[in-house]
Amino acid sequence: MKIFSADQIYKADKSTIEKEQISSDMLMERAATRLFEWIHTRLQGAQVNIQLFCGIGNNGGDGIVLARHLQEHGYNIQVHVVNYSEKRSKDFLLNLERLKDRKIWPDFINEDSSFPLISPEDIVVDAIFGIGLSRPLDQWVANLIGHINASRAFVLSVDIPSGLPMDRPPVSEVIEANHVLSFQVPKLVFFLPQTGIYIDQWEILDIGLDTEFLTHEEVGYELIGPPDVLPLYRPRNKFSHKGTYGHAVIIGGSYGKIGAVQLASNACLTVGSGLVTAFVPKCGYHSLQTALPEIMVLTDDDDENIEQITIPFVPNAIGIGVGMGTSEDTAKAFGAFLKKQENPVVIDADGLNLLAKHQELLKSVPAQSILTPHPKELERLIGKWDNDFDKLEKTKKFSSKNDCVVVIKGAHSITIYKDKGYVNSSGNPGMATAGSGDVLTGMITGLLSQGYEPLAACVFGVYLHGLAGDIAVHQYGYEALKASILVENIGRAYQELLRPPNRENSQES
Ligand SMILES: NC(=O)C1=CN([C@@H]2O[C@H](COP(=O)(O)OP(=O)(O)OC[C@H]3O[C@@H](n4cnc5c(N)ncnc54)[C@H](OP(=O)(O)O)[C@@H]3O)[C@@H](O)[C@H]2O)[C@@H](O)CC1
Ligand SMILES: Nc1ncnc2c1ncn2[C@@H]1O[C@H](COP(=O)(O)OP(=O)(O)O)[C@@H](O)[C@H]1O
Ligand SMILES: [K+]
């Protein structure tokens, strides 16, 4: 699903109004009707106190229209206009008049007003600012937002939590939304660590913006869910054999860190690679052979570290770096290994740390190789960033300059290739556990070895990895989820992804 910038949403708005030959207030009516339907379906007329805080722009206009619908259906409402500017939007004013025609008189909150009491049992509708927020809040508006946040009432934000800009981190107070009803498209800020913290749940309301515009407009980011990954899936062929699915090699490990290679190799095989060989220092031989009978093992001459990488065949895919250490000898072996590679490789963990330490090695990384840093590894690689938006821009530049795919791992991992980002939607905090990144490296390597293109291997692999975590969490809960359990659930993740749509929900039934 595409993620649009504020400018693009305004364009979609304009294009819809022109194509459908409707007025802008009709679009506002449509948006607010969707909001009303959402609330009415859940509340069914319950007499809870609903306090609507409306700004003076179109976000506020949505709130004012919603208030009218709620009142018409007998809900208990209080409407507050947050009077932060004299520049009221045309559709806000039109709908304010309509509200007054129905004898609803909002109270106007100004700089010197006292704030209304909000009980924890109330529902707050936050329609103060939408995507038009363009500068820091006046102090009294920030105080009002603080007052709403302190109320412990359920807060439903219209389009975006008020105070959250679309393209940079907030500088003052932001509404902490329990639920965001966002129009037509998800917003990038929902998925970034600095800004996503203001949102518990979000949902899209379809307000019928021009489909042609939405389909053809190029975007910088996409949100990746099942409809996006399913077309990437490469089905198995009846007459295939293990050679069809490639021979993958996982290189890594050092004394005390052989488990990382075990997890990655197991994930690589479980995601479907035909054959898997692990290359480790000698100390890893017995444990790997015992733990993973399906996997072959090659060893370095050194007992504790990788010092020379010799693979006596041409693998279909290689994943390197997990648990590998960063000793000088390993660095030399890594450099010599990279120089010999012609096909894309997957580089993780200490492989990334070595690249950061010896930046001259970057030119030996084959085109379209995959780098899977967590934020600390990314910082070592591309340097410090000012904020999450800057981080994404810097990563895009790094990816273009070095022709590599970068998977920024986190709660919503983002795969970057050149000027495009793919935001993952699966996964959960149970995956914040040792070794879950090693599992991802194995999975991506296993997908590459089966013939997935590098970008597809990342987008598909990251989604499948998160889905395995989401399935596992049902059985284990967040705390007890371990990396090896992720591997056990890769098969179920495939089944879940490929499950035909439920017949009962399909239109024929
Ligand atoms: N597009 C669509 O498809 C649809 C959009 N809809 C709705 O419209 C919303 C966007 O509305 P919007 O453009 O009127 O902006 P909004 O967020 O209400 O802000 C109001 C104005 O405040 C101003 N301002 C900014 N920062 C400020 C500050 N710190 N302190 C004081 N003032 C500040 C700024 O004006 P400025 O003074 O900068 O000219 C800004 O314009 C969108 O989120 C959705 O809810 C739906 O109705 C239908 C379909
Ligand atoms: N809160 C979270 N929600 C979803 N996924 C997460 C979360 N925390 C971590 N993950 C995922 O777990 C993995 C952690 O990787 P990494 O930090 O490299 O771990 P390790 O080095 O221990 O293997 C990444 O794929 C990341 O996206
Ligand atoms: K809002």
Model description:
With 509 residues, this protein is an alpha/beta fold. The chain folds into two domains: 218 residues, 3-Layer(aba) Sandwich (Rossmann fold), CATH 3.40.50.10260; 253 residues, 3-Layer(aba) Sandwich (UDP-N-acetylmuramoyl-L-alanine:D-glutamate ligase), CATH 3.40.1190. 40% of the residues lie in helices and 17% in strands. The protein is built from 18 helices and 18 strands. An eleven-stranded mixed sheet has the order 1-9-18-17-16-15-14-13-10-11-12, with helices on both faces. A seven-stranded parallel sheet has the order 4-3-2-5-6-7-8, sandwiched between helices. Strand 14, helix 12 and strand 15 form a beta-alpha-beta unit. The protein is elongated, with a radius of gyration of 26 Å. The site of adenosine-5'-diphosphate (ADP) has 17 residues, from helix 15.
Topology:
Blueprint: E1 2-3, H1 6-20, H2 24-43, E2 49-54, H3 58-72, E3 76-82, H4 90-101, E4 107-109, E5 123-127, H5 139-150, E6 154-158, E7 177-183, H6 193-196, E8 199-205, H7 211-216, E9 221-224, H8 226-229, E10 247-251, H9 259-270, E11 275-280, H10 285-291, E12 296-299, E13 317-320, H11 328-340, E14 346-347, H12 349-357, E15 369-371, H13 375-382, H14 388-402, E16 404-408, E17 414-417, E18 420-424, H15 436-449, H16 454-476, H17 483-488, H18 490-498
Parallel strand pairs: 2-3, 2-5, 3-4, 5-6, 6-7, 7-8, 9-18, 10-11, 10-13, 11-12, 13-14, 14-15, 15-16
Antiparallel strand pairs: 1-9, 16-17, 17-18
Bound molecules: ligand NPW, adenosine-5'-diphosphate and potassium ion.
